[in-house]
Amino acid sequence: MKRVDNGVTYKEIAPGYKVPRIIRGGWQLAGDHGPVERERAIADMGAFLRAGLNTVDGADIYTGVEDMYGDFNAKQKAAHQPTMQVHTKLVPDYGDLATVDAAQVRRIVTRSLQRLRTDRLDLVQFHWWDYSVPRYVETAVALYGLQKEGLIAHIGGTNFDAAHTQEMLAAGVPLVSMQTQYSLLDRRPQGSLAALCEKQNMHLLCYGSLAGGFLTEQWLGQPEPAFPMANRSLVKYKLIIDEFGGWPAFQTLLQVLKAIAQRHAVSLSSVAVRWVLEQPGVAAAIVGARYADRLASTLEVFSFQLDAADRALLEPVLAAHPGPAGEPYSLERDKTGPHGRIMKYDLNKS
After folding, report:
1. Could you tell me the pLDDT band of residue 209, with boundaries at 50, 70 and 90?
2. Which of 9, 92, 116, 260 could form a disulfide with 70 if both were Cys (CB 3.0 to 4.6 A apart)?
3. pLDDT score, position 226
4. DSSP string, 7-74
5. Quick one: pLDDT at residue 145?
């Protein structure tokens, strides 16, 4: 792992390909999180790049986000300046799962190449809505075919559990990473998925580390919010708080995080992200941002490490509240349950 002058550290997730341990997330740029000032958001990408955070996360289904990343990189290239590494996704629509074929995979990847204005995608992360539709291995193999053609540099997964990840690996798909939800509130990846990643030299890229902004000072001591929430992230992660043990348990966790933050003279949110980065198998945390106004706080995570005293404070709270049960993303796959009902399943065509 290489350290640069401002403290940012990096992890090599494939031979010759490293990422900063904080990746800028792009869901907040896609709508459902309030209005986005497009030109400001694109310009602010330069601040992240100059700070050493040279990797962004997006998706084929994040409306307009690939185009924004493409515009930024095109401007950088025209000025002979460094560009961002872009991680995107392949998310076939739920309604198409039974008929997805290599031609459709090629169309989606070609569209991402066009939007990003590049001839090769840095990392494509593959998501599949329903394991009962048995075409996910074939779809991953189709992605591998495009990688061998040179259209994709690296392949990862999104929201797969260990058993289904192993199926793709057994089919010869060279997965380098798995994007998964991972936080103090949701520790489902700690089991078999983290173990598989360590065994196979794969790496976890973790979203939800701040629970959509709930794991920040602004919620400490606040009353439980009522629906409707201000954005989709808050809706999603309020459900995770409920699984964790409810609002009183969440407030107890925030109080402990605040005590740890004061010990290290950092923000509560930096402690939450630092905890994720110190878990086995984790290469990076994906921290969403529309603009660069909180960049300085984001960089705090590189200024300290958790020690035995910190872990001793956290241990009783985490032991009392194990959080969501089951494999990663298992609750979200149930379309009849509260986690599944809030999902948008058919965004690719639109």
Report:
1. very high
2. 116
3. 86
4. --BEEEEETTEEEESEEEE-GGGSSSSS---HHHHHHHHHHHHHTT--EEE--TTSTTHHHHHHHHHH
5. 98
- Report the distance separating Cα 291 and Cα 43, nearest Å: 9
- At 93, the amino acid letter reads D
32 Rama class: left (phi>0) / alpha (psi -120 to 50) / beta = left
**Is the whole model's pTM more than 0.85, yes or no?**
yes
- The token pair that represents 13 in the structure block: 């997730």
Output the six-digit token pair for 81.
């300046």
**pLDDT tens digits along 247-298:** 999 999 999 999 999 999 999 999 999 999 999 999 999 998 888 888 999 9
Integer Cα distance of 215 and 193 in angstroms: 24
Backbone angles phi, psi at 13, to 5 degrees: -100, -10
pLDDT tens-digit readout, 159-175: 999 999 999 999 999 99
Which of 270, 212, 292, 284 lies closest to 27, judged by CA? 212
pLDDT tens, position by position, 33-78: 567 888 998 899 999 999 999 999 999 987 789 999 999 999 999 9
Cα Rg, the chain, nearest whole Å = 19
Check if the beta carbon of residue 33 is closer than 8 Å to that of residue 25.
no
Amino acid at 84: M
- Calculate mean pLDDT across residues 84-96: 95
Q: Which two tokens stand for residue 181?
A: 């939800």
Handedness of CA 2, 22, 128, 112 (dihedral sign): negative
How buried is 43 (Cβ within 10 angstroms: 0-12 exposed, 13-18 middle, 19+ buried)? middle
CATH topology of domain 10-212+270-305: TIM Barrel (3.20.20)
Q: Each residue of 253-291: b (16+ CB within 10 Å) or e?
A: bbebbbebbeebebbbbbbbbbbbbeeebbbbbbbbbbb
